[in-house]
């Protein structure tokens, strides 16, 4: 899967969680949770969304590898081969 | 050896009473011979035998009443050995026990169901009492209106019914929805993501203002804070979550919620209301869980019977509540039922909080962020994940002593996360 | 078996075979039902079960007059009719068990045996309810000009029903090919004939419908066969229905068991002395048409046939509960 | 539509007769049997003239023996015929209830699928002709209780003409109930009118405020009530059930999901009647669509009285339908 496709899916899920967010201006390397004001429930929902849409089951110990958009893309691309 | 059993001679025959044996041990019998007379509901019936052989033993006596299928005689068919007879006799003894003991296995089943029911009873009674205590007057609402109101997240207590006996109809709900939410009507094309719009915001701020204003005016707060070592709890939860797929994972805040609810069962004085100058503890524990809305504002809908639910159930409940709070689908009972409130400001990076009690409740429990801190135990310093727990108590209802009992209990429960 | 003797004339051999066949059938019915009583007692068979002991000569005798194309409408005491009509003991036993392999797929049970190959239309458990059906079957044959008859068995109890009167009248009025066979065993359940009919001579009633009728000793197989042949050929001649009254007796209770409060033991014993099977065996032996060895062999064969039937029924399948509502309406549309 | 070329004017009676005639012509196995269907021409003159065309063997007069000739019809169906059995009125059918219930409805099932019974039994039903308590009842709802038979209640000329052939083609017993007040009803029928399905209810009038569920003669009362209500801006949807068993509940449940209100109009008695069944199905299938309790307008629970004014009072009438709907819609509209 191409990175753009993964990004689109992430944005889809984020829009459900934070509908008011302007994702176009989302910084690639900024902390996602702080930027988008995402709490732990929202973050869990993001993980569930990724699991449902991409089939990737992300262990809790990897959560910190998903702290920025850029890291998230790297991590998911790697997991999706 | 053949066991001759009380025959079933009709679908309505359940048992029979032996009137007379027509044979005695040692007699030869042929298939079709009448060997006994049995009294049934229909009268005295002659019963026939279906084998050829010698009567070995008669197992019941005239006057004995036995169920259909009970062995009543042993018949030795030709060529059988003595050893078999012994085995059959042993079996027969068991049969006799069944006869004496109880009518049939079905009864056991019935009994166990009854026992089960009896066990359930107190719970049902409690439910009933709760319902009665609620004492709300039932509003008449048509099923269609009820469904629509739920879809709209509309509180039916605010709708005026125009149907027979004041029943609320579908049209009443639609009217109320339009009147209550002009913003939605104006911008119907927008994606309805939740209770948005200036009016809603304004209404909510006013409600918060009224409640918090009253709280600050009327409730003499006292505050107690303690820090709790969560290393065991976090370790347990990490292990537990490893076993689970993403969607089944449990968040730490659920442990805090359950521990709070259980601690309240030990210190019930903090769970309840101050109404009409009187402290009124409540048996049921409905924890109001403060949820911040993205567009601002705060709602603390109740998680019913939090002490009785498993961590999984609580996780599901919380997810559901958060979703519905943010999309505007809360039920009115959820808005009003809370007996205590919990706020978790950890996600916002706050270390500890000293909030205002939501009247008429008498306590507010706040948690801060779980942070790694230096911790001394048994004279050793280590790094531990620690959370700050704060209790705000209504001094009219309880004192610091009660509050400290609660925090101690909370601490204890959080050391044994696996038992939550 | 006649080795070394003068060869038997062919008609004699035929008669012997025929008689053996009839004896076999009567014995099969008696033994089959004995097994049924046993299986009922051990709860393999449930529901109501009406045994035919003592009446075997009626079913077996009458069936000799029917062809494969004819139709049979029977009562709820119909195991004998079903066996004599040629429905296999296996499929009847499986039906009593309620298994899917039963002749009615287990849906009917003891009182509702059905079979299309032998045109066996029940197994009717409403007294008198089969009579109008027989009239209709005969009507269809007559209208469609098929040379068949419909043989309708009913008990003397049915004579008190309005449907008896209506059906006799209609069949005679339209001159339909029905052979009405009244099995008069003297008791409608526990009610003696004299307590239910103002005119106890059933045969006499037929005159009221202008129907030819004859009474015959139902305990005498040869007599029943002869009378049935005569009646059937008259029906086939197109002169309308005929009624045959077979005077018989059931040795067992009405349905599996009853305390027999309604009839004297001495009466039952007296009738048992006239057992149609015992008398037929006696007759054949007198005529030199049956040896003890042959009888023994016959019993052996019957025992095997019944064992097979029980094994077949035991091995049968229960219809899946998902099929509960099947056969309420047809799965297919008729042409 | 009504161009003289394509339609022909006839009565309901004639529509039934045409259906019988067509069936007799199409299929040799079809025959009509019943009391006075031949020489007399039928109690309600439905079969008038058919004897001359088809002869006494196929238009078969029977004695007054309901049980025997209904049973004979079942036997004939088992024997390969396609009988149409006429019973004068539904009240007389009770004399044949044994054959209908214990035989026609059970043979297929008791025989494990071996013997189906393709019989059609027609009878008149309903009140309105001052025939009093032994000729005027509506027992079709009773028969609809019985699995194994189908129960048709044609109300329109099209259905009177079109349902019979489909019923004859059905492999299972079909009962057709003809409301006796409809026999003289006149209308236009297409010249080429033919067989119609017997499995579905039909929306005879569309509306948005309330669903009127009915069948038989009450259909026309419901349509008239709907017409008058429309002047008050109340739009009633009128559903003609056409067949009471199997009951096509999908049609009325769908309608109720739109209108949120239902009124059942049934000549039959209320207690344990088909109206109760319909109401229960609504409860099971459309509870959350309801904005008002289901209402029923049924026959009064009395044996039918003889005098005209009492008979009228005992039957559902247009005014009652209107006032019921009005109260229902206005009180919570």
From TrEMBL, chain A:
Residues 4-80 form the Carrier domain. SUPFAM superfamilies: ACP-like (SSF47336). Gene3D superfamilies: ACP-like. This is Acyl carrier protein. InterPro entries: ACP-like_sf, PP-bd_ACP. It comes from uncultured Desulfobacterium sp. PROSITE patterns: CARRIER (PS50075).
UniProtKB/TrEMBL annotation, chain B:
One of its GO terms (molecular function) is lipoic acid binding. Residues 140-177 form the Peripheral subunit-binding (PSBD) domain. Keywords: Acyltransferase, Lipoyl, Pyruvate, Transferase. PROSITE patterns: BIOTINYL_LIPOYL, LIPOYL, PSBD. One of its GO terms (cellular component) is cytoplasm. It is an enzyme of class 2 (transferase). Its EC number is 2.3.1.-. Residues 1-76 form the Lipoyl-binding domain. Its cofactor is (R)-lipoate. Belongs to the 2-oxoacid dehydrogenase family. PANTHER family: DIHYDROLIPOAMIDE ACETYLTRANSFERASE COMPONENT OF PYRUVATE DEHYDROGENASE COMPLEX, LIPOAMIDE ACYLTRANSFERASE COMPONENT OF BRANCHED-CHAIN ALPHA-KETO ACID DEHYDROGENASE COMPLEX, MITOCHONDRIAL. Forms a 24-polypeptide structural core with octahedral symmetry. This is Dihydrolipoamide acetyltransferase component of pyruvate dehydrogenase complex. It comes from uncultured Desulfobacterium sp.
Automatic annotation (TrEMBL), chain C:
Its cofactor is thiamine diphosphate. Residues 24-315 form the Dehydrogenase E1 component domain. Gene3D superfamilies: 3.40.50.970. GO terms for biological process: pyruvate decarboxylation to acetyl-CoA. The keyword Oxidoreductase applies. One of its GO terms (molecular function) is pyruvate dehydrogenase (acetyl-transferring) activity. It comes from the Bacteria. The keyword Oxidoreductase applies. It catalyses: N(6)-[(R)-lipoyl]-L-lysyl-[protein] + pyruvate + H(+) = N(6)-[(R)-S(8)-acetyldihydrolipoyl]-L-lysyl-[protein] + CO2. Keywords: Oxidoreductase, Pyruvate, Thiamine pyrophosphate. Heterodimer of an alpha and a beta chain. This is Pyruvate dehydrogenase E1 component subunit alpha. It comes from uncultured Desulfobacterium sp. The gene is pdhA.
Automatic annotation (TrEMBL), chain D:
SUPFAM superfamilies: Thiamin diphosphate-binding fold (THDP-binding), TK C-terminal domain-like. Its cofactor is thiamine diphosphate. The keyword Oxidoreductase applies. The keyword Oxidoreductase applies. InterPro entries: THDP-binding, Transketo_C/PFOR_II, Transketolase-like_Pyr-bd, Transketolase_C. Pfam families: Transket_pyr, Transketolase_C. Keywords: Oxidoreductase, Pyruvate, Thiamine pyrophosphate. One of its GO terms (molecular function) is oxidoreductase activity. Coiled coil: none annotated. Residues 10-185 form the Transketolase-like pyrimidine-binding domain. This is Putative pyruvate dehydrogenase, E1 component, beta subunit. The lineage of its organism: Bacteria, Pseudomonadati, Thermodesulfobacteriota, Desulfobacteria, Desulfobacterales.
